[in-house]
């Protein structure tokens, strides 16, 4: 009897302990949930997006477009410029290649200045240099003043240091993880808009005339057309452009800010980290080959096209415009795709492969003088080859987070500019010696090589995306 009572008491005691332990577990879970909610609330309070981010993006887009317009301003009317200034094709080609040549040595001090002084100072310097170079071109109107125009190109080309690498940086500073790739894409497409207008406007304004006085007047009108809006933009940037928002837009940027405050990473350390990142180096090579081919096509398009269509200066400009408009759409579309899917490696391979298809199609369309197909393949090529720029910028930001986006983008562009000079010179020599078909085959082969390199890039280390997911 006593034994049964004792057993009953033990059972009741164990049951009470189980209930007590269960209550303690519930309290711990509740406490953990409250801590999690509190942490999420703290993060939400520390991160914020501001409506004026679109104003910052607009001002950047205008500065990038106006700067990019000058890149092939002479090359898009190469036949007229060669005759008016009495210079050979290589001089006209160098008027665009100077943009690539100055980028490589100047990108390192420019990105250092950007990281130390911020976006605002970089933007003001960039637009100021573009405005000075634009007005300087008015001093090059005499037929013996091509060197003055070339010097103006040098100044404007140096100004691109402060625009070409900024899309990913500006997007990361002002936009949250759901918009960052789209914002970067818009920034990239603005540069292409400037190139598109340079394909379109100079062949219309600068007429292919035997009257040198007429050509001089046309060039003067073209130069003023660019100098005035660039000067007005300088005023807007000075008064309205901000270096960064008061609060970061995402947890990734919040973590980056705290890391920068905690330990200032030297610029040399950042560079060393980048060049020892295998995936980033592979991306840098594939990007450089893609951009180099684009630069070569854009610079030589007028000469390539006039071989088959001797009186087709205007059509050559329109085909270049089609190439760039396709690239603008591609940049935006692929930016949205990345924001929705975050499939960086898969998108890279798809876009690159279709770019190869486009360049082969363009090569054969030009050889067979099929004008409609030239337009179609040009737009197709631009949509994928130029659309790849946004993908590469964002992929680089993912692979190198939390390092500054401007530095990773700057190195990408440095390789692209260097290979652009090599390919423009090489393709120009082959074009003069062998004609357009071997030239196009060379550029197609280079793009295929870039595709093969892309297959070795791993898409598993998406560090910025992982940091942003903590916030959600």
UniProtKB/TrEMBL annotation:
Coarse class of the protein's main subcellular location: membrane
InterPro entries per UniProt: FLVCR1-2_SLC49-like (IPR049680), MFS (IPR011701), MFS_dom (IPR020846), MFS_trans_sf (IPR036259)
Alphabetic keyword roster: Membrane, Transmembrane, Transmembrane helix
Residue intervals passing through the bilayer: 54-74, 94-114, 121-140, 146-168, 180-201, 221-241, 280-298, 318-337, 349-366, 372-391, 411-431, 437-457
Major facilitator superfamily (MFS) profile domain sequence ranges: 56-462
UniProt signal peptide: none
Transmembrane found in the keyword field: yes
Alphabetized SUPFAM superfamilies for the sequence: MFS general substrate transporter
Gene Ontology biological-process entries: heme export
Subcellular location: Membrane
Its membrane topology: Multi-pass membrane protein
GO CC terms, sorted: membrane
UniProt-listed CDD domains: MFS_FLVCR_like
One term of GO molecular function: heme transmembrane transporter activity
Name of the featured protein: Major facilitator superfamily (MFS) profile domain-containing protein
Organism for this UniProt entry: Nezara viridula
The organism's taxonomic lineage, starting at the top: Eukaryota, Metazoa, Ecdysozoa, Arthropoda, Hexapoda
